[in-house]
Amino acid sequence: TQLLEQSPQFLSIQEGENLTVYCNSSSVFSSLQWYRQEPGEGPVLLVTVVTGGEVKKLKRLTFQFGDARKDSSLHITAAQPGDTGLYLCAGASGTYKYIFGTGTRLKVLA
Amino acid sequence: KAGVTQTPRYLIKTRGQQVTLSCSPISGHRSVSWYQQTPGQGLQFLFEYFSETQRNKGNFPGRFSGRQFSNSRSEMNVSTLELGDSALYLCASSRTSGGLNTGELFFGEGSRLTVL
């Protein structure tokens, strides 16, 4: 069974701080995505990484895919209250199916 | 462009009843997948449909079933409801038609089911 473990599970930080969320697995994924979900809404895609070692930046968010394509990280610089939400990583498993991580609930305090 | 629409948004059922949830994908999206989200288990894959065919299924009992219509709209059904079926059921549509899953999943707001 493929699993994606995220850490930390919960994170409460002050506005302006930096943070990193990790997504780890013992399985190899053909691609990995990061989503953010806000209360009462479905997850929204932030980024897709495909190549081992790939780094993508989205404004203050930096995403990295591990060289072996088994892990990924999300780094947020100078977090803002608008970054608050549930962050989910999702690995493409075989065909037509995504395995979602356990989630990291982030709260950024003003 | 209309997003993914799920109905109903909220519903309450009692144990033993059955429920049908509906999902209308984004126009032009032919792949529809369903996920169950609970605080304890997170997001778990239920099944995926493309052109009215189920292409993949998660590890859920046979009480969970689904189908897709020719217009790509999809329904999922849960029979003989149990307390543990209480969850947010999310539908996602995608343009992905095959090969590597690099396509974006567009999620609806979900149907929140409470089983009493």
Task: Give an account of the 3D structure.
The complex is a heterodimer of chains A (110) and B (116). By secondary structure, chain A is mainly beta. Chain A is 0% helix and 53% strand. Chain A is built from no helices and 11 strands. In chain A, strands 2, 4, 5, 9, 10 and 11 form a 6-stranded mixed beta sheet that branches. A 5-stranded antiparallel beta sheet of chain A has the order 1-3-8-7-6, with no helix packed on it. In chain A, a hairpin with a 5-residue loop joins strand 7 (61-65) and strand 8. Chain A starts with a strand and ends with a strand. By secondary structure, chain B is an all-beta fold. Helices cover 0% and strands 52% of the residues of chain B. Chain B has no helices and 11 strands. Chain B has strands spanning 5-7, 10-13, 19-24, 31-38, 42-50, 53-57, 64-68, 74-78, 87-94, 106-107, 111-115. In chain B, strands 2, 4, 5, 6, 9, 10 and 11 form a 7-stranded mixed beta sheet that branches. Chain B has a 4-stranded antiparallel beta sheet with strand order 1-3-8-7, with no helix packed on it. Chain B is globular, with a radius of gyration of 13 Å. The A-B interface holds A 1, 30-31, 33, 35, 40-45, 48, 50, 88, 90, 92-103 and B 4, 31, 33, 35, 42-45, 48, 50, 55-56, 58-59, 90, 92, 96, 98-102, 104-110.
